[in-house]
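Issue 218. Parser rejects a valid record. Input:
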Amino acid sequence: MAKGKISTKGKVAIVVAILLVGTMAYFIYKKSRKVEKPKAKEKEVLKKAFDNLTFEINKSVIKSSSFDALNDLATYLIETQKPLKIIGHTDSVGSEASNWQLSTNRANAVKKYLLDKGVISKISALGKGEKRPIATNDTAEGRSKNRRVEFILE
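Output the parser choked on:
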């Protein structure tokens, strides 16, 4: 073999070495990035928004104590561009018609808040009134649980 020429085995060895180094570099880079798992982050953001969302009594005005959690949700939606479904619910106090309207107005208030924060992903808002309770309406605690807004990422 002439001086300065690399054999076929040598070329294969170089290519394998380059691939191994590249693969190792990729996995080291990937491991060094401490990225939270998307599903965990998603669950955390939705739970925080659900747990902290409150309204003025019998109104669709969002209380300021809810803003931090809704801002986190807005940021998440801006980053992921995921569509969101907002579903409002009420307890059974009052007429069925007024409860349906209140639940719809509350879902729409949250939608407007998120859109005002710059969310451009698709957001749908609907009210279910008192039709889907998660607790009894016979106690104050149960009624409190039934007055809620749910968030579903699609």
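Fixed in the parser; the record now loads. The first strand starts at residue 84 and ends at 88.
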